[in-house]
Amino acid sequence: MGEFELIHHYFQRPGANPPGVVLGVGDDCALLQPEPGQRLAVSTDMLVEGRHFFADVDPVALGHKALAVNLSDLAAMGARPLGCTLALALPRADEAWLAGFSRGLFALADAAACPLVGGDTTKGPLNLCITVFGQVPPGQELRRSGARASDEVWVSGQLGDARLALDALLGDIELAPEVLVRARQRLERPTPRLALGLALRGIASAAADVSDGLCGDLGHILTASGVGAELEIDALLASSAISADLRTLPRDHALRCALAGGDDYELIFTAPAGAHDAVLQAARSAATPVSCLGRITAEPGLRWRDACGQPLELAWASFDHFA
Ligand code: ADP
Ligand code: MG
Q1: Among 19-33, 58-72, 76-90, 247-261, which is the least confidently predicted range?
Q2: Rounded distance, CA 45 to CA 67, Å?
Q3: CA of 178 to the centre of ligand 1 (A)
Q4: Is 277 exposed, middle or buried (0-12, 13-18, 19+ CB in 10 A)?
Q5: 302 torsion bin: left (phi>0), alpha (psi -120 to 50), beta (else)
Q6: If you average pLDDT over residues 228-232, what whole number do you get?
Q7: Which of 207, 262, 212, 254 is nearest to 234 (CA)?
Q8: Helix or strand holding residue 173 (H, E)
Q9: Would you say the CB of residue 2 lies under 6 angstroms from ligand 1?
Q10: Is it the case that residue 285 has pLDDT exceeding 90?
Q11: What structural domains and CATH numbers belong to the chain?
């Protein structure tokens, strides 16, 4: 199977272009048309074999995850997807692999209304790079720099289960088979929080997605905003942000997974305390659970306290490819 046959067969789909796509796969460029007055939001994420995924990972799950991690960035910006491109390096044209990968990718692309509009295909070590394009009305984007002292700090969904799965797959811990199935689902098939990102427009003061671990990604918000935060560890451990599976681990291991694990693709965000009910309403409308973890402070730095208000020292950094 040649390059163009491969593209045509696995990545070009017949049918009318969805709104926002004037021209899709097949020409020198795709043409996208944001709604009048909206800004283009653009983000790229690369997945490298051996670094971001195991060589033998299910290609359907990989297709899903490659797009999901990109859509998560649009969600964290409060942007609505317009389309995406896929740059793909493949060691060979393995048709079973390509069929699975494109199935996983298109299932999520359809669910998120984010059509594949172009890309590039080349021979080489397996490497996937997706770029997503979205739109957001000026001023309604959720930047990292908007957190202010006394804002509340929130997180969506649950943290740490992806890391739990990774620890098990690396052989560092043993999990009951049904626990591993659930945790692997979180590692391999993350859910981008697009509906929540849209619902938080005009409510959240700052947002980021949790790709490298809560401590690190909240740290980016704090740095960009020139503020600090005070969070309660026991409130976190008791909250719905920690799964029942994670709760069965020793406290220290559970905390490490939840705070520095990475690959969660939840949203960490801040909002004025007066918007507490509006956040809960937005979360309900997006059918996405959220938990309030603490407060933004004028004093810089991320500080954890126990239930008695005593400061706790948590020394783990978040994931850094070059650390
Ligand atoms: P060019 O030589 O102009 O870079 P290509 O021959 O690489 O164009 O690609 C032909 C068409 O197929 C282009 O519209 C390109 O966007 C699209 N394309 C190539 N690879 C992919 C892919 N993996 N997924 C989706 N579209 C692709
Ligand atoms: Mg090309």
Answers
A1: 247-261
A2: 9
A3: 41
A4: exposed
A5: beta
A6: 95
A7: 254
A8: none
A9: no
A10: yes
A11: 3-136 (3.30.1330.10), 144-312 (3.90.650.10)
122 — pLDDT class (breaks 50, 70, 90): very high
Report the nearest atom of ligand 1 relative to the CA of 120.
20
Is 315 a residue whose pLDDT tops 70? no
Taking only the tens place, the pLDDT of each residue in 60-78 is 999 999 999 999 999 999 9
- Sorting pLDDT into bands at 50, 70 and 90, what band is 320? low
Residue from 266, 267, 143 nearest 205 by CA: 143
Query: 123 alpha carbon to ligand 1 midpoint, in Å?
Result: 13
State which of 1, 11, 25 you would mutate to test the pocket of ligand 1, scoring each by most atoms of that ligand within 8 A of its C-beta.
25
Of 65, 63, 194, the closest CA to residue 135 belongs to 194
Give the residue whose CA is nearest to atom 7 of ligand 1: 120
Q: Is 63 in the pocket of ligand 1 (CB under 6 A)?
A: no
